[in-house]
Design the sequence.
């Protein structure tokens, strides 16, 4: 029973992480409809820049985290302007853009490896507090992961509902052509979406750096978990992405009860496969296409 | 005739190599309701999209209030007082009625004007006030069309271009939608350029009619001679 | 020297992989990114059978082909349901799962340790244990594998694959069974890829999951895109370049780890640059010179296609009591129609009256909720579209759906009925039969093109035609199916009156030759000018029928027509 409880708590913690990834990815995919694989390595950029700012430049952690987030946002915007936008202008199909995105994925991931090396980068003198709640153990970083989701989801909801730009994103997510018809500059909204989505994803990246350290390959898992969260929850819905993230986090951890540990990371992919095959509109969402 | 609001000359447009309309001349006078008729595939939608800037015309000029606007982006046309209501889903189906109306006024930043226009729209279509919190896609077909028209009015356009507002609506609703368009034209002085297939309810409100056939204009004049359906059918 | 030979061996192996991958993504348009998994299945099957059971070459290789073929079928199943980006993501997930299985099924695969000491291939008592000794075998097997791929791609089956890539519904509408085609191409592509895996296992003498990850799939993808999708020579070239190019890095003094990453960066950049600047690849699929068709082929009539039958007015198609609803809205209601040999019947009515739905019900693109369709007395309702085409009824589409990146000739050739070359058994075992049939079909296709006046454009891509020519090609393709009953959905819409009238005689001639014709048109000039009889549809049911002139002069119908 104690183990079940611990697994559930772990599931919620990982779920918060996945939910944030899903929200960040959805923020980009929703309005632009670009399947942005390079979301993964850009996620990693945040962690590495934060690490470099903290250890090489000796910045305080909070400031370093902000630098990491800013770098990620900038990289996201550049990926749109330099890679995706020219394809959009050319009128390329979604599939071509997706393959190009895979190209950027592999380029960036390896570039990071070349610049920083393949060893795990950790912030050395970081010792998170450990809390014992009855039989359950949690660390302060894990609590931060849960809090980050709550905070960002709240801010994002306020931004999307309350601000002009936020509404433009919602409008374009709902119907890109109507957005154009009512006078929204869709290129500017796309830039904004890439900036915001990359910044949102940078937060869990920085937290993972604090928790486990950064590796060049970390983006691969990130972008796939984002896919899983978005697909499980239903494409086009932020609430869906959050529910999807939690669902995957919990299933993955509860699954450990029966399934050997080495298969844990595979569970999410099996879930992704089954849902795309049988419920492409997601478990909770409605099909937008 | 009243002063000219929109004058298109020699418009040619299409997709890729495919020319859909060719050599179209069309004049819309201020305060008019101009109806464009034509069978499926005659090029009505293409023409409207080219006029509004969703599609860049391959040739020809479009003068709006004397300014050349051919090839201008939709956002600029919206800011200049033109609204477009596309065929079918002219709304954001996943957003509430309130959000839809607010977004309709995306180009308008003056809060006082917004409140006033919202009043006007609610006055025209009270159901949109009652259903402010409802998600657009769950409205009935007729209500969705009213919402689409309401959205277009939210930024106070001088010219509204409608692409088949009757599509998918039951006859009594078509009548209702046409009557509201006529009412808007009368009370707000909004100029209307409208594409339709439904002649029965649209012809009575039109001040002038153009008939498009396989990409060319074959009739441009008063609505009266077209009231005889058999004559009209011969034109088609 | 040995180093150089090693590179050549790797070129041979990757040429197999790129070529087989091209069959999937280039020829068939199925972007299933799990090719490294097929490669791995071949390698592991060979390693397991050779190490664990001592099976000698080539038995493990052949077993690998069978296993990979089955895995290919399994991975092909999602492609029956989803396409485009969904297929990419779903197959990437499968690729990850496959690697996880290789890593974690330790009892079979050796887990992270992999399987070592895979025995060398023995030929005449000599072990092929150096690159030099292995190279001749690698080249021979690669040549054989590529020949298999090339035969498939160049056959009528390959042409059908490209048609399916261009437009699935249109491929069905010319009688192709796309479900079977997808499964077959997945199995064949996976089987060929596994051959590379088997060679690799014997050559390196060691297999481990790290060789078969997503990175490898992307590597092979880059080869295909660089060389040119839909062109197998391109894949060989792409493989050669992408194997040799990174080797140049060896001349720079770099730590091996960095060099490896630089290699990956290179693939990524090449992918992006090619897609931006030359998406068709170094060797494009379409070659103007090769596509040129010699003049004077094919007769003048359509006699070879389908013998003319008397335009006797006999009923060939009977639709009875057809019903179709979509989520509570009734689209077609109790619809009955008779079509007759030698007559041109028009289907008219206001927008949304259910005309195209009626066509979809007749041709099997929609299954009717109730009612039956008979073609020459045989019940065809409930059959898949391609089987209804084979029973003698074919349709065109409002939005044309040409096979745009195929030549005009191939658009017609692919539609010809009952092709032996559509079956791989014939392609590989009776090549001379297929060759003779191809020669005959070239003549038949040219005759069809001459009939509509497009013979001069035979070698051009369909996408380069003018709009009027596209419309003619739609007619030609429909004719080529050899079907007796031809349903045209707005064949003349968007044409200027002059062009339109120049097409009238073609349609009339078809009717005189005993075809049964039904036309949907909104332009009433067409109905008046072409049809013997017209059926007026509104709200999903037949309201009236009669000669076009009586229907058009009927005030009640006119009122309905304009609502």
Sequence:
């Amino acid at each position: 029973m104690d183990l079940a409880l611990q697994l559930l708590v772990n599931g919620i913690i990982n779920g918060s992480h996945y939910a944030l990834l899903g929200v960040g990815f959805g923020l980009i995919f929703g309005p632009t409809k670009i399947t942005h694989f390079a979301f993964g390595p850009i996620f990693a950029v945040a962690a590495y820049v934060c690490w470099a700012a903290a250890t090489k430049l000796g910045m305080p952690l909070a400031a370093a985290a902000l630098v990491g987030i800013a770098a990620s946002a900038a990289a996201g915007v550049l990926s749109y302007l330099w890679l995706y936008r020219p394809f959009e202008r050319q009128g390329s199909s979604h599939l071509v853009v997706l393959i190009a995105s895979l190209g950027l994925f592999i380029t960036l991931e390896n570039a990071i490896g070349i610049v920083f090396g393949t060893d795990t980068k950790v912030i050395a003198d970081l010792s998170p507090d450990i809390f014992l709640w009855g039989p359950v153990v949690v660390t302060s970083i894990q609590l931060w992961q849960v809090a980050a989701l709550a905070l960002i989801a709240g801010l994002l909801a306020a931004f999307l509902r309350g601000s002009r730009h936020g509404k433009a994103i919602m409008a374009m997510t709902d119907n890109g052509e109507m957005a154009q018809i009512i006078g929204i500059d869709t290129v500017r909204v796309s830039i904004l979406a890439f900036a915001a989505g990359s910044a949102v994803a940078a937060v869990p990246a920085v937290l993972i750096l604090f928790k486990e350290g950064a590796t060049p390959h970390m983006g691969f898992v990130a972008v796939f978990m984002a896919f899983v969260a978005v697909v499980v929850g239903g494409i086009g819905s932020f609430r869906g992405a959050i529910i999807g993230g939690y669902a995957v986090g919990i299933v993955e951890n509860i699954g450990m009860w029966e399934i050997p540990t080495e298969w844990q990371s595979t569970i999410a992919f099996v879930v992704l496969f089954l849902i795309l095959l049988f419920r492409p509109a997601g478990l909770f969402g409605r099909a937008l296409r | 005739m009243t002063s000219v609001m929109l004058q298109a000359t020699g418009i040619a447009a299409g997709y890729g190599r495919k020319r859909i309309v060719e050599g179209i001349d069309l004049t819309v006078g201020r305060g008019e309701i101009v109806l464009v008729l034509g069978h499926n595939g005659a090029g009505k939608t293409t023409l409207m999209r080219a006029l509004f800037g969703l599609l860049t015309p391959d040739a020809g000029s479009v003068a709006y209030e004397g300014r050349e606007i051919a090839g201008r982006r939709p956002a600029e046309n919206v800011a200049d007082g033109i609204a477009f209501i596309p065929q079918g889903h002219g709304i954001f189906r996943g957003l509430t009625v309130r959000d839809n109306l607010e977004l309709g006024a995306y180009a308008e930043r003056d809060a006082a004007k917004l409140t006033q226009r919202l009043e006007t729209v609610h006055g025209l279509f009270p159901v949109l006030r009652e259903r402010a919190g409802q998600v657009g896609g769950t409205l009935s077909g007729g209500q969705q069309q009213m919402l689409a028209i309401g959205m277009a009015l939210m930024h106070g356009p001088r010219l509204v271009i409608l692409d088949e507002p009757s599509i998918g609506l039951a006859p009594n609703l078509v009548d209702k939608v046409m009557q509201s368009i006529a009412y808007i034209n009368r009370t707000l002085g909004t100029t209307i350029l409208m594409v339709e297939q439904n002649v029965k309810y649209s012809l009575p409100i039109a001040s002038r009619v153009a008939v498009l056939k396989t990409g060319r204009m074959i009739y441009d004049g008063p609505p009266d001679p077209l009231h005889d359906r058999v004559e009209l059918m011969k034109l088609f | 020297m040995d180093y150089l030979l090693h590179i050549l061996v790797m070129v041979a192996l990757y040429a197999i992989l790129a070529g087989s991958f091209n069959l999937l993504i280039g020829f068939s348009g199925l972007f299933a990114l799990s090719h490294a998994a097929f490669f791995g299945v071949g390698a592991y099957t060979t390693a397991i059978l050779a190490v664990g059971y001592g099976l000698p070459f080539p038995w493990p290789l052949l077993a690998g082909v069978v296993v990979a073929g089955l895995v290919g079928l399994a991975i092909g199943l999602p492609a029956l349901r989803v396409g485009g980006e969904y297929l990419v993501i779903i197959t990437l997930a499968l690729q990850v799962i496959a690697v996880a299985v290789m890593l974690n099924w330790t009892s079979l695969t050796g887990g992270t340790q992999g399987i070592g000491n895979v025995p060398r291939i023995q030929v005449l008592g000599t072990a092929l244990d150096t690159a030099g000794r292995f190279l001749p075998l690698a080249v021979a097997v690669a040549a054989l594998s590529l020949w298999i791929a090339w035969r498939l791609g160049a056959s009528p089956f390959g042409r059908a694959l490209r048609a399916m890539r261009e437009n699935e519904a249109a491929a069905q509408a010319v009688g192709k069974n796309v479900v079977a085609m997808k499964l077959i191409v997945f199995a064949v592509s996976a089987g060929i890829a596994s051959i590379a895996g088997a060679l690799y296992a014997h050559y390196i003498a060691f297999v481990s999951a790290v060789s078969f990850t997503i990175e490898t799939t992307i590597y092979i993808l880059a080869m295909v895109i660089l060389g040119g999708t839909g062109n197998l020579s391109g894949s060989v070239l792409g493989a050669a370049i992408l194997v040799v190019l990174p080797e140049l890095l060896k001349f720079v003094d770099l730590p091996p780890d960095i060099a490896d990453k630089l290699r990956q960066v290179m693939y990524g950049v090449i992918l992006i640059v090619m897609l931006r600047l030359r998406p068709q690849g170094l060797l494009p699929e379409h070659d103007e010179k090769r596509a040129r068709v010699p003049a004077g082929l094919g007769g003048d009539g359509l006699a070879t296609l389908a013998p003319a039958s008397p335009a006797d007015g006999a009923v060939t198609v009977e639709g009875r009591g057809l019903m179709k609803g979509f989520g509570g809205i009734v689209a077609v209601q109790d619809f009955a129609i008779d079509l007759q040999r030698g007559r041109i019947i028009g289907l008219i009515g206001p927008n949304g009256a259910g005309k195209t739905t009626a066509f979809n019900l007749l041709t099997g693109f929609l299954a009717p909720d109730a009612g039956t369709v008979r073609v020459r007395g045989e019940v065809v309702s409930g059959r898949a579209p391609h089987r209804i085409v084979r029973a003698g009824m074919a349709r065109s589409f409002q939005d044309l759906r040409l096979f745009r990146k195929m030549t005009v000739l191939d658009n017609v050739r692919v539609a010809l009925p009952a092709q032996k070359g559509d079956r791989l058994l014939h392609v590989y075992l009776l090549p001379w039969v297929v060759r003779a049939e191809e020669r005959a079909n070239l003549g038949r296709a040219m005759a069809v093109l001459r009939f509509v006046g497009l013979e001069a454009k035979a070698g051009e891509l369909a996408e380069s035609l003018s709009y009027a020519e596209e419309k003619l090609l739609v007619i030609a393709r429909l004719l080529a199916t050899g079907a007796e009953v031809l349903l045209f959905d707005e064949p003349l819409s968007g044409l200027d009156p002059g062009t339109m009238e120049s097409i009238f005689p073609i349609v009339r001639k078809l009717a005189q030759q005993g075809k049964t014709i039904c036309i949907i048109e909104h332009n009433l000039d067409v109905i008046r000018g072409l049809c013997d009889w017209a059926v007026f549809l509104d709200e999903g049911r037949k309201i009236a029928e009669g000669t076009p002139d009586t229907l058009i002069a009927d005030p009640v119908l006119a009122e309905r027509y304009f609502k």
Notes: The longest helix of chain A spans residues 2-32.
